[in-house]
# Entry
Amino acid sequence: MEKTETPRLKPLPALIFGSRWLQLPLYLGLILAQSVYVFKFMKELIHLITEAATFSEQQIMLIVLGLIDVVMISNLLVMVIVGGYETFVSRLRLSGHPDQPEWLSHVNASVLKIKLAMAIIGISSIHLLRTFIEAGNLGSSGAAYTEAGIMWQTIIHTVFILSAIGIAYVDRLSQGSAAMVRSEH
# Structure
């Protein structure tokens, strides 16, 4: 089996192409941020386990929603780290690896945008659900939210949904026009 040599780039194109490696510290920083979320998750889980007997059902539900929120944010980080690195920096060469995520085999910038939008909607949904659960305290002195705050959270969540629909629609249009261009050739 013969290896083909990759052509050597001229200095300016090599510099421009090599600049993608400037993103590596950003992805390493996100890995560190993810470790902070692991710490936060473990801290909340230990708190839930040790204090479960004293919590009301609503308190348990809110803590569990917080744990789910941390997991969803962590999943978002994995998508950005792995998908972004694979798309914009360098191939991970995971083909055939038993632990390769299913979605990674067909990831590109467009797929990554849609997956990120869906993850953000999921995270926003968890936050909104927590807000609605705590809305029973609305108007009391210890209320965590105001009516205006709940309204704005709902509006922002709706904007996230509409944005994701818009991204998916534009992606579908661009895939359709790309297919038409391929069929013309």
User: Anything to note?
Assistant: The CA atoms of residues 26 and 143 lie 38 Å apart. The two ends are 33 Å apart (CA to CA). Residues 108-185 form one domain.
